[in-house]
């Protein structure tokens, strides 16, 4: 704690120096008291900047060393574990994350303890404590999602740098951790102002996190099982109060009138949905955002570099790291509300299309706002993904981009000849003909999309999610069907697709799948619904190949499995507690979670 206090005192001194040019008026660091530090608005702002920086927001840098591929670059999305993306690895365990979260919690607890000793108006103190408790709730809801019950620390510990004294407490039950999250967020919502600067918590940000967290906890109680005497899993009797809390928090946001669905471009529904995630400043739907801007935050990411199709990739060469599979694409319905299965036929009975885009005709505009598909344009370039050609009933697969098929020689060649047709596209069709569009900067020139240069902000909480939380909580609580139906139909109307006339669990869940695709919500949904082990048992993601039929002079599509199957076990609903932490804590953490 001494190191932390010295850090805050130093920040305070720097802040004081910035507003006072008289060197003789400056006090040495070791002469500044806690009263002077914590009553300084500049020092408090600096402290909160650190707390927010450490928030485990699951954004472009979500893997952050946790999940393997390209740490820090966004290729480790939780989306990669489900049908949101095809290039996936199972999650790896990262011992560092546990320690990082507890060090961050210690910082919050230190602030809450010290601010109580400072002479400030009670309303000011309460607002500071409320914001700190929002941050602490964010940390704990991350811990409990991953590991179930964890040690609850509400006082700053004497150890620093992750020493064992910090964890010399037994695990609390999972429900007790969720109860702490609720308590902290209730306090935050009651004491924070209704408005705040961009990227900081206010009353409605706290309510949005409460909505999300309590829906998760209520689902665990309703669909999960209790093990280790409640260290993982929640008593089913707690499902209703948790779901009611999610319902109430969501309703408070909706009825406040503070937020509305983004609808700046109503005549182009696809563009409207795409730019919802790009035009965040002043966005009426945005509740809580994380800024990525080198000039003001010294933070950048590499989303554009990693996700762009090869046709417009950067000079570095990375591209196509997130390719939505056919399974995800077909979750998007058609505009008339019919199921989203593509009409492609079967091998030997293909459906032919003159224009590759015709296979997606009348799809939910959210599909076009979220995904780049073959034959569409992005950043002024046509994006094509073609696997090969079919000639006289024989399939010829390409081996590289921009190849040709020599009709006379009946072979794939690198360059066009006197009698040839295009055999492959300008972007990879090794897995599918889809590329991620959501979160890409539409205005950034492709040649500038290099490593660590993207500055698109992350939209962490928005009204769209709150409406879906409200719909799900209302349905699971047995509220009148019109409540869930109206909430879901607000999103469908904004999207430009047919309203639902009836509502059920499957429809609500599919609406979440498409509305929140690639927002790092789906994997947690599958976990809390406990469907990961059933819906994805032995699951193999499907890609979509496109071939040019030389004889018919049109295109055909072929569904194809991509990679090996995935296997999920019941134990995968929780991560194993890091072995290093179990070793340090001895019997207090036991053997960790069941099944490992």
From TrEMBL:
Its main location: membrane. Residues 23-214 form the SusD-like N-terminal domain. Coiled coil: none annotated. It is found in: Cell outer membrane. Pfam families: SusD-like_3, SusD_RagB. InterPro entries: SusD-like_N, SusD_RagB_dom, TPR-like_helical_dom_sf. Keywords: Cell outer membrane, Membrane, Signal. One of its GO terms (cellular component) is cell outer membrane. PROSITE patterns: PROKAR_LIPOPROTEIN. Residues 284-596 form the RagB/SusD domain. SUPFAM superfamilies: TPR-like. Residues 1-20 form the signal peptide. Belongs to the SusD family. This is RagB/SusD family nutrient uptake outer membrane protein. It comes from Larkinella knui.
